[in-house]
Amino acid sequence: MNIYDISQKAGVSIATVSRVLNGSDRVSEKTRQKVLSVMNETGYTPNIFAKGLSSNSMQTIGILCANASDPYLANGVYYTERTLRQFGYNSLLSCTGHELKDKQYALDMLLKKRIDAVVMVGSHYIESNPENRQYIYDAAKQVPVIIFNGYIEHDNIYCSFSQDREAVSKAANYLLSQNRKHLLFLYTMLSYSGREKLYGFQKTLQAYGYSKKEIAALQCPVSVMETLEFLESLYPNTFPFDGIITSEDSVAIGALKFAQNRGIHVPEQLEIIGYNNSQLCVCCTPELTSIDNHLSTMCQNGVQNLIRVLKHEPISAATSIPCDLIFRGTTKKQYEIKQS
């Protein structure tokens, strides 16, 4: 079944069927319904690529994600694809990994498929070396580029990101207000988001009079068990900290397991704060206090901005999303509420 067959069954010209498919207003409502009725009866689905060639739009957005098995990134892809679908856009997903050459290759392949725009889920696409961002700048010369949870300033690049620096600062201020004096920050990578989190931690402690040597921040593995093993290898005897902030919930739960194995009482002796407010937070005992960076809001706002860009409407190049500290059982605040 093709467009010629539809025109024959509907008793209209091929040009009329084409106008119906492209949403043209140069067709009467009666004729439009007649053509649509024949399409429904025959189960005809228009060829998206042929339609794209005629309309100069594939109605398709490319999505780049480093690792779809990562719960945080998987949720980001889900929120993005769902919102795009609500606006009538299809998605093409490419899982790139973290190597620069693989990111470049994946983006090039998507652009060759005549996509309307690119969405990059995750701040790791913003390389710390500005020269390594050139592939993004080159893509932005062809189509709009949306980056979630990262920020770079360039023509035709639009960023939606959480206020990571302020969020970690808020968490550190809370722990210091609880008279915690020996804080540790555990992070998994120095992506744009990772750098913002680390900076927020360091600056807050410096404001309290801590010297650079007194500020403890360690890069660690991302999984629960690897974090546990990492801490056990570093601190086989005593553990000198009374407060931990992490860049991921999985790392926080690894730290919680470490504390429980050592007989360190949480939150009485050690308070722990994770990041992302994921489902993992309610899968441990005590439940994990975490920073909610409102990923769904970030993705939805980003897609809405993209649609405005595609409609040639003016928008801000950067949208920041405030974060919230969600208190649960690994901090004294929620613990004391539950005990009262």
UniProtKB/TrEMBL annotation:
Pfam families assigned to the protein according to its UniProt record, in alphabetical order: LacI, Peripla_BP_3
Entry annotated with the keyword Zinc-finger: no
Annotated source species: Candidatus Fimimorpha faecalis
Occurrences of domain HTH lacI-type (ranges): 1-55
Protein name (database record): LacI family DNA-binding transcriptional regulator
Lineage, highest ranks first: Bacteria, Bacillati, Bacillota, Clostridia, Eubacteriales
Keyword annotations of the record: DNA-binding, Transcription, Transcription regulation
SMART domains, alphabetized: HTH_LACI
Coiled-coil regions listed in the entry: none
GO molecular-function term, one example from the UniProt record: DNA-binding transcription factor activity
